Amino acid sequence: MVAKKLKGIMAGFLAAALLGGCAASKTEDKSSEKVFKIGITQIVEHSALDSARKGFIAALKDNGYVDGKNLKIDFQNAQGDMPTTQTIAQKFVNDKVDMIFAISTPSAQAAYNATKEIPIVITAVTDPLSAGLAKSMDSSGNNVTGTSDATPMEQQFNLFLKLYKNAKKIGMIYNTSESNSGIQVEQAKALAAKMGLILVPQGITSVNDIPQTIDSLIGKIDLLYLPTDNMVASSMPIIVKKCYSASIPVIGAEKGEVEGGALCTVGIDYNKLGYESGLKAVEILNGKAPKDIKISVQENAAVIINSDAAKKLNIQIPEDIKKGASIITGGVN
Fold this sequence. Notes:
With 333 residues, this protein is an alpha/beta fold. 45% of the residues lie in helices and 19% in strands. The strands form three sheets. The protein has a six-stranded parallel sheet with strand order 2-1-3-4-5-11, with helices on both faces. Helix 7 (210-217) runs parallel beside helix 9.
């Protein structure tokens, strides 16, 4: 009887020890699960950049990386202030994040200036090479990869010439502090010369310059072309109001500007662009080096037309242009 009792006691202790070991093992497995920290830096809030950010986060989620579970996202907005982009980048370095997602050329440059070790995924950067972020689109040669928002400018010019066959003088406003905007101005100058047009570019340094700049262009231009410029994109209401009051059409370089009231564009989808960047981020989180991931440009740009703007400007959009185009509304008072 004593022997049987001892055997029973020993068996109980053994079972308890095994169960305790299993419980401890499960606790250890859970506590050791990696939580990745991603810092998102964005130069300013407007529809295009916001869409890119949402697309990026969606791609991570679709691939099992969820904020609040195995992912911790720290979103910082520079509110259009260049020095703040440097402060944000340095904060992420000090916080030892696992990755930086930089939305816009200034934000990407600030991140790259702050670290050559932490992986940086970029988007909404027109020319990563000229911005000093990469040696080539096939391989940055460093800790950077992502997507470019280079737009099909020649297709955009051809579109507005179909709508305005007699247009000759094309206005263009851009932020002189954004390198990507300067690149687009040079592209537009070359394209205008090729197509027999006159480009009238006007630089701005703050949103406060926009009303006066547009006033100075009225009477000198047939239409206004907007580049993918963050300061310009965030100022669409005043641009549209000023130009349409003077019956000057506004042509956008991307979908967000058309949503903000521009007449039309042949543009890219920033949500899809951000999603594509997110897929590259997933590759990095799974162990791939940024330099081994190509920097890509979105293909298959689509014609986008704002029917409210067409109505405001009393323009009939030809059926051959409307066919296959995305028709949207909004941004026009």
